[in-house]
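Q: My collaborator sent me two sequences in one message, no labels, and asked for predicted structures for both. Can we handle them in order? The first one she listed is below.
A: Yes, handling them in the order given. First sequence, followed by its structure tokens:
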Amino acid sequence: MLTAANIHDMREALVLFDAIVPVKSLRGRPRRRPTKAHGDKGYDYAEVRRGLRQRHIIPRIARRGIESRQRLGRYRWVVERSLAWLHQMKRLRVREERDDTMHLALLRLGGCLILYRKLEPYL
């Protein structure tokens, strides 16, 4: 999802989970939501935790003032690595596009290129 830079992540967290499309599998019903959600201290709000539980998602969110951010390291590096791959593409490193649809199209194209590069040895 694409939002302005001055909007807090907490406000868009539940909207993001509602926007997840079903994942098709070979058998059974399509899965609509993940079983767990990992987040850093920026998502440590009661309404986010409550909203995740209402959606039957287990919140794994670091608590402010109690837990260190190091515990999320093994899950967070996947996100940081993926963002680094996207930042290798110059137009995605710093947003120069004014049009939201163009920026989203470039993000999707970047994701496709990353996927192609990972699958290329198997083709």
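Q: And the one she listed second?
A: Here it is, processed independently of the first:
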Amino acid sequence: MSTTAQYTAAVRNLRLDQTWDQVNSGFLRIYSGTKPATADTALSGNTLLAELTFAATAFAAASSGTKTANAIGAAADAPATGTATFFRALKSDGTTVIAQGDVGVTGSGNFIELPTVTINQHDQVSITSFAVSEAA
């Protein structure tokens, strides 16, 4: 007996829109250190390496269970040096966390992939694409 439900694309799109539209004019923060157990868990000893800004309309409407970000403003001046390990997406209030995920190098299969996970203080950090999918 399976307890896993399968959802239509329309339901997946609705869930993605309701979740990710909350980051309009919000922030994408990249950290070093161990990723907290959940997005609700407080940071502990993590270093902020970059803060990027979502557009006023952060994402296009979801389609076929995928939601793709509009252009994300680059972090012009990284505040610290470290190895990027995870990110948090926050509302525009800068305190309400919506989601978190892993960061890795290009081709690693992580949620966010960067050419290098080594970020040096004063580096410019940018993300060229960001998409979220929900399986059927």
